[in-house]
Design goal:
This protein is an all-alpha fold. The protein has twelve helices and no strands. It is found in: Membrane.
Length: 283
Amino acid sequence: MAMPMATPGTVLGTSALFFTGALIMRGAGCSINDLWDRNLDPQVTRTRLRPIARGAITPFKGLVFTGFQLLAGLGVLVQFPFECLYYGIPSLLFVASYPLAKRVTYYPQFVLGLTFSWGAMMGFPALGVNLFSNADALAAAACLYASNVAWTVLYDMIYAHMDIKDDAKAGIKSIALKHDKETKQVLTGLAVTQIGLLAAAGYAAGAGPVFFLGSCGGALATLGIMIKRVNLKSVKDCWWWFVNGCWITGGVVSLGLAGDYAVRYYQQPAELDEIDIETEKES
């Protein structure tokens, strides 16, 4: 989404770095979560066999491993323009605070969304686009970020239904517990919010029909099917949709973005030729 607003660069190389950074930092987030929850995880059937929870790894060794993960993440971050440090480092506050959120609010999934979606803000400065001097880029980044927050809350609400009984016993708060009886209505609202914000991001970025049909239309179809079919009372079904739903919806959104970028990339030379012809006529 950011590339058409940027000076010519390697979008594939930047995407590969983002993939690597996301993989490392998601791992670090899981490690931090397991450290915070080492006394809660043994009380939940699904998490009781995690390494720290079952005593296979000491908290100190977990802390050391987390430190190496964070250093590796920093190694990826410094490959981007220097300005990205100002965006990347504050995200650690969200990474560290998510495990605490489930102890004080029924909406820890919102904090998780703020954490997992942070790359949407970083993609623009990573390609040299200054968000504070480009109103369209700022609007696109903000809407894309908010869209991803809504999506994260949506799929993690399904995920939370797997542990709903154990969470209630252990005193762990979640949006699934708070809205158990109206979960599908909440999921529908989140889906509408996600798609609306995604469309707004595309509009601000000047996206074309491929994006709106592929990314927005694809998300509408895949999320609609998931919300209709998921059996929230079945742990196995919730797990299947959590894992595969993320790939399916994320896949169509990504393909729509890639298709839109490809169309605009190949249209650019033709547009430049037209400008040259007009310039020659005027001269």
